[in-house]
Amino acid sequence: MRGHAGRRSSEDVRSTLMSTAERLFAARGYSGTSTREIANESGVHESLIFRHFGSKQELFKRAVAEPFAGFVTEYVEAWQESPVATRSFEALCSEFVAGVFDLLSEHRQLAMALANARAYELGDAGDAPSPFGPLLAQIESVAHAEVTARNFGPIDMPVLIRLIVGTVLSVTMFDDWLFADQGRHPSRQRIINELTSLMVHGIAHRPHQLVHEDVPTQPAPAKRSAGSKRPTRSSHAS
Predict the structure, then answer these.
(1) Cis? peptide before 154, omega within 30° of 0
(2) Residue range 104-131: average pLDDT?
């Protein structure tokens, strides 16, 4: 364990363990990373991992979820700063797709570590439940408020949001397989443009005959403060 001067706060220790765990899990996978290695790299005693997180599995779940949680928080908070339906629907979709694409591209190895752990490294897949459920529910609330204001529904939002994230995830994780026969790999912007078009037209221009009667009740729209303004951000054509 590395020495360090002074007593570190509990918050600092927890943050350091999270960032170290994220880096090591991404590089070595779940089974290839020990709690002792995480503690040594963090400069703390191994027992602090169990004090803060309870188990290696719980630390793994938190480390995997943390980057996505940060993105969702920022996206929802930014959306709450302006009234519903004041920005073009294409701009909102493009911003979401680009954000998820960049996030998953940056943390590609961590996403692969989660997939491997669930498939091969944990005795019970339930030991590593998806950390994305509560976060995706927040995105559903935003999307529901926007499509309702534009009279686009009814839409099975829980399924739709997960399909969009799953599509982006597959593109970022398996891009070398998907585009191997294309010679030149498509640019980030080309991919985001097409994913945005799929999202926009799949929601806004949906034939009524494709809507099933068993679409569940949508979640309540996220609350926002009235009259607040959104900071100036790049706009997209409506």
Answers:
(1) yes
(2) 74
